[in-house]
Amino acid sequence: MAVLAEQESGSAARILGAARELVLKRGVKGLTVAEIADRAHVAKGTIYLHWSTREDLLVGLFGRDFLAEHDELAELLTADPDVARPSRLLPLLVQATIDHPFIRALQSEDDDLLGVLTQHPRSAKLLENLGPAALLRVALPVWRRHHLARTDWSFDDQAYALQALLLGFLNTAVERRALAIISVDEPAQVISAAVTALLGPEQPGPGDIQATADAALAELAVRRAALLESIAKSD
Amino acid sequence: MAVLAEQESGSAARILGAARELVLKRGVKGLTVAEIADRAHVAKGTIYLHWSTREDLLVGLFGRDFLAEHDELAELLTADPDVARPSRLLPLLVQATIDHPFIRALQSEDDDLLGVLTQHPRSAKLLENLGPAALLRVALPVWRRHHLARTDWSFDDQAYALQALLLGFLNTAVERRALAIISVDEPAQVISAAVTALLGPEQPGPGDIQATADAALAELAVRRAALLESIAKSD
DNA sequence: AAATGACCAAATTCGTCATTTGGTTCAGTC
DNA sequence: GACTGAACCAAATGACGAATTTGGTCATTT
């Protein structure tokens, strides 16, 4: 059974906390394991009891952001199945991306913060499996099946358009480009409206919402397990 | 009266051509004026008869791409005012961005191709005034006024959503990110459909289309003049 | 008037090497 | 068995001077 390092050791938790603070403050570049150990009040060697490599620790950092995002979404979906509607899920997704620094940094390819890690194969894998495009691939068919998206549009075209919209919102919300001049107070509402405009009015029959939420939760569980496996201690 | 260097000198045209080829092939980094002069079959000094600085020449290079784009759009609009419809203009805009290497590179902040020029204040200025956001600021009010976009949506929200959609399409079409997995055969049609979904059905009254096209042409003329001024010979 | 190319100062590159840094290990302590 | 920290060593750094390159100028030529 996969188990996270911090669940069985207080020092591992302190190391993670210290690493998180330091990376957020100064970035990966030039951050040494000695510094992390110092701030966590452990010796350098201790770090290697929990992670086999410096990079493992760092990748684990934003793996944990994804994990937290998954858990939050699962909680919301359980409490209120209505969250599974596209007009509610996509704004949440954008907000979640903004809220989690590492996901945000990965999304915007923030080299200052993440250093070479951005283009590292392992983090690329993370994004490929957990990124917005992968999500749409899974979610859109479910939405179409349960009358939460119009079906008078070919799947590929619809997915392409929705992907563009989502990436566009992510870019304008996350990145600080000079290009994106227009901004707005309540992005969530705009995203919601735009998604509805694209996918058409949501017309769920009885049970459709719950079924969609269940499918979403199942998918989240699968991803969570895979994610956990990839950042857990390899015994 | 602003006049482009290549309009009054054959050697200037050859220099531009040589520079263009070389930049597209190998990027700005490490490209010397001696090389450009060699390929253009002129002496180094000749280049400085037309441009006061190496950087002037390079900025002029993608200034000319914008100029070409403007001229193409103006021609299309003149031949067929219908092109001024949002559902036709935005796909064209995306396509134009793809077709012009320097605009594309500027959009995707391609450091390999453009080197430090990407984040240079002068090219930033170019993008700020000619980029997609600036365009929407001008175009959307016209569309709304002439029944080519729904007005039951606040201007800011609508602009924000449309901007996100446009940037999203630009990103997926231009950039080669691993994120954007979903792709499609005929992006133009998808863009068109997505724009229509966002802005609502176009319901122009008599004269609306022509008025929109005229406004677009007027705006293009203003931009073209400013652009020309900024890359023309400073006499 | 248009074009050239030798010329120069400033910047960049190169090669070399002593020094430091920093990820990882492991023998030993608590 | 959790933890330490001294020790190891491959890789990075930086100093530094020499050699080369290169953006820009200008007297001269065509």
TrEMBL record, chains A, B:
| Pfam families, sorted | TetR_N (PF00440)
Q: Keywords on this record?
A: DNA-binding
Q: Which residues form the HTH tetR-type domain?
A: 9-69
Q: Which Gene3D superfamilies match?
A: Tetracycline Repressor, domain 2
Q: Name one GO molecular function term.
A: transcription cis-regulatory region binding
Do you know which SUPFAM superfamilies this protein is assigned to? Homeodomain-like
Q: Which residues bind DNA?
A: 32-51
Name the source's superkingdom. Answer: Bacteria
- PANTHER family, sorted: HTH-TYPE TRANSCRIPTIONAL REGULATOR PKSA (PTHR30055:SF226), HTH-TYPE TRANSCRIPTIONAL REGULATOR RUTR (PTHR30055)
Q: What is this protein called?
A: AcrR family transcriptional regulator
- Which species is listed as the source? Kribbella sandramycini
